[in-house]
Amino acid sequence: MTDDTTCSIRGRVRTASRPLALVALVLLAGTVPALATGQSTPTISIEAGSVAAGETTTVPVVLTSAPDGLAGYQLELAVDDPAVARFENASYPDRFGLTTDPVVSSDGGTVTLEAADLDGQIEPGASDVVLATVSLTGVDGGETQVTVASNQVDADGGGAVEPATEPAALAVSPGATTETVAAVTEASSPASESTAESAGAASAAGATEDDSAGGGDQSTTGANGPLPIALAIAALAAVAALAARTSRRP
């Protein structure tokens, strides 16, 4: 094989390698965004579900991922409609070395949480980190949203984390006590009406009897009429006696 032939092959290889390099760059450029998209964004999610009115359920608050670890956080959760459900209390996992007592608003509409990971328990790359568990009590039948009103999350080293937030729907079904009371009330309504009618009839009958009794009293009072008759008889007797005396005189 001559030198000219060798140079010709090298030139062909070089020429052919240029399109291949361009293709590789295009494929790599398309792969990098895909890899970036595949990385999960830290998100604070609330795993709400359902509860009956008058009962309490516990709901975990989760940070889906902590790429740079977690140093601490402060959160405020809110219930859109405290007339449907309200916060009662909250608790923290033992892994947090420093925590602040949960602060629940007077109407139970919000709860404020704060904790710090002093011992580095939550390492970089951790996932599904339970930040706290909140207690929610059903107040009345309906549905309400549980949301993250505000948050401050710090990674290891003090870097700020800006997690996304996901609201959750909490369904509250009427409690058994409420349903029972409603059923009893509905069932007793006709009986109450019947009782009222019976009471009205009894009252009317009593009034009639009282009237009759009153008539008897009147007749009895009228029976006092013999008192004037007796006086009349006595008067007649006196007149007769007077007449007899008069007739006896000479």
By DSSP (H or I, 4+ residues per run), the number of helices equals 3
In terms of structural class, how would the helical and strand content be classed? alpha+beta
Mean pLDDT: 74
Q: Kindly state the number of beta strands.
A: 12
Q: Main sheet, how many strands, which sense, barrel?
A: 7 strands, mixed
The H/E string reads: HEEEEEEEEEEEEHH
Q: What is the CATH class designation of one domain?
A: Mainly Beta
Which stretches are poorly predicted, pLDDT < 50 over at least 5 residues? Answer: 5-38, 178-185, 212-226
- CATH-scheme architecture of one domain: Sandwich
Compute the separation of the termini in Å: 206 Å
CA-based shape: rod-shaped
How much helical structure, as a percent, in the residues? 40-55%
CATH topology of one domain: Immunoglobulin-like
The Rg value, from CA coordinates, equals 49 Å
